[in-house]
Specification:
alpha+beta, Glutaredoxin, 6 helices
Amino acid sequence: MKKKRTITTLIFGMLLGVFSFCHAQTTTENPGEEGASFVQTEVYYFHFTHRCATCMAVERESKKALHELYPEEMKSGDMTFVSLNLDEKTNGPLAEELKVSGQTLLIIKGDKRKDLTNTAFMYARTNPEKLKKAISEAIEKM
């Protein structure tokens, strides 16, 4: 009986060693190498079909700010700007997922989210530089 227990313990120990070696080999990741995690920044502007001058300015100035502040990220697709019409049924599921029901400027990076709607509507027409600064600060804090 003692011999059987010793053999079982030995086999278990060897299997444990083999599995831990294999696991250690496959979980090594270095930043910048293939397999390293990456989180895209997504900027959404939700609007309706009928828009006022301020609504159009929010879209125009937000998009312009992103292209000026992050040209490489926008060009490479690491950062995106998407304008979505809430009156189009195809945009409904995303609006529901993001809990959006009206005009909204939303920045999302991973599980972080920043709603800049009030700031955007306050400054898009009267002080676009303030909106640009708010966008930059929100993204940098993510």
